[in-house]
Specification:
The protein is of the alpha/beta class. About 35% of the residues lie in helices and about 25% in strands.
Length: about 180
């Protein structure tokens, strides 16, 4: 049996648990999260090169011209993207539907894609519990209705219910399916 290393791609609407699952995959299974690049301002608790690569708008636009990104998007007035040099085996990336499609179409790379599903009211409550403002949570829910509409989601390998399963259960399911994909005959 030949073992091929592959990459985990997590997608889902706001507060569906993607980031928490990615953190748990890192601490429990050693799956490293891809560090994405952004033009937004660094928050107090964040570290450049750990949480994100923080760059200016000008540098980000140069990087687009230099074809450095697998995918990129503009969200809330800031650019976000994942660079090709971050794409490595045994890594995990948290991505929106446009990024999900880009990763699914990567040539010469094996990716296993997951979509985390949970209801709007559950996600709204999670956002408020983590400290998002009512208007921010409401805006994200409204934006997600369009961005994460079924017609915008490409085919994924696995849909996982992140509403009725704990973060740890979702993490374990992701890792189990990932391990199964590693064993290609």
């Amino acid at each position: 049996m030949i073992i091929y290393a592959i990459m985990i791609v997590l997608s889902g609407a706001s507060a569906s648990g993607k980031t928490e699952v990615a953190k748990l995959l890192a601490s429990k299974y050693g799956i490293v999260k891809v560090i994405t690049t952004t033009t937004r301002n660094m928050r107090v608790h964040e570290t450049n090169g750990v949480d994100y690569f923080f760059v200016s708008n000008e540098r980000f636009l140069e990087m687009i011209k230099e074809d450095k990104f697998v995918e990129w998007t503009e969200y809330n007035g800031n650019f976000y993207g994942s660079t090709k040099d971050q794409i490595q085996d045994n890594k995990c990336v948290v991505i929106d539907p446009v990024g999900l499609k880009a990763y699914s179409q990567l040539k010469g790379r094996n990716v296993v894609t997951f979509f985390l599903e949970s209801e709007e009211d559950t996600r709204y409550k999670r956002m408020l519990q983590r400290g998002d403002s009512v208007e921010s949570a409401s805006r994200r829910i409204m934006n997600d209705r369009t961005a994460f509409a079924r017609c915008n989601i490409c085919k994924v390998d696995f849909n996982i219910d992140s509403e009725n399963n704990s973060v740890e259960q979702v993490c374990d399911m992701v890792y189990k399916f990932y391990k199964e994909k590693l064993q290609i005959k």
